[in-house]
Specification:
It is built from 1 helix and 17 strands. The protein is mainly β. The protein is globular.
Length: 243
């Protein structure tokens, strides 16, 4: 199959959203939207991620799980592999995709990940090179979503004039970008095999996944194929991915 040059344009800015079905709050979106659509490509492709920073503070993007062989200057951690992209400026990330798996992209400065700057990044095998056969591929992303911005929660935690311990803050669980209670259902047909990609893009919370009455084979962990592991449930910590 012919490889492609995949171009993705991200204009990062503050937006006002209600993601948990209860709280309207300021968040960080891409191209005026949240959730940010998944980025998808195939092994052998090159990905060009054009990022414009429309925030009032610097930002960077980290491709979580990508090996970045001979490409560490594109890895994204602020003040480690690059300076932050200044407000109003742009930066282009170039990735050569050498591995298949379930990854994700997220902000790597000032905890912008907690305010919404995160998206799934799926790299598929070339046609005919799949290690496992399945009839359909589903993606489920998991996020913890707080009613206030990270900066507000941090202020109440570290300001010596504020009450300590700070007020308790509980997160809502989002599945595919919305309150898990209203996430679109998955449809299964008897006799078919399904790959379900589980990506925890959460800040601090773990998630548990199971299909009551059914058992599953784990075939991928953190972007790497694994020996099939039989289980009836999976614990997914922050940043972990399973299929």
């Amino acid at each position: 199959a012919t490889t492609k040059h995949v171009v993705v344009n991200w204009d990062i800015s503050h937006i006002t959203v209600n993601r948990d079905d209860y709280n309207l709050r300021r968040a960080i979106g891409v191209n005026g939207k949240l959730p940010i659509p998944p980025v998808e490509a195939t092994v052998g492709d090159t990905l060009e991620l054009n990022v414009h920073n429309g925030l009032d503070r610097p930002t960077t993007i980290h491709a979580h799980g990508l090996f970045q062989t001979n490409n560490t200057h594109m890895d994204g951690p602020a003040m480690i592999t690059q300076c932050g992209i200044p407000p109003g400026d742009s930066f282009t990330y170039h990735y050569t995709l050498e591995q298949a798996g379930s990854m994700w992209l997220h902000g790597h400065l000032a905890h912008e990940i907690s305010d919404g700057l995160r998206a799934a990044f799926i790299i598929r095998d070339k046609p005919g090179a799949e290690l496992y056969h399945y009839d359909k591929d589903y993606l489920l992303t998991f996020e913890d979503w707080f009613s206030t911005e990270f900066a507000d929660r941090m202020y109440h935690t570290i300001n010596p004039k504020e009450e300590f311990p700070p007020p308790k803050s509980y997160a809502y669980g989002l599945v595919n970008g919305v309150n898990g209670n209203i996430t679109q259902t998955l449809n299964f047909e008897p006799g078919k095999t399904y790959r379900i990609r589980l990506v925890n893009m959460g800040d601090i919370n773990s998630f548990q996944f199971s299909l009551p009455g059914h058992e599953m084979y784990v075939i991928e962990a953190d972007g790497e194929y694994s020996v099939p592991y039989f289980t009836d449930g999976i614990d997914i910590g922050p940043a972990q991915r399973y299929s």
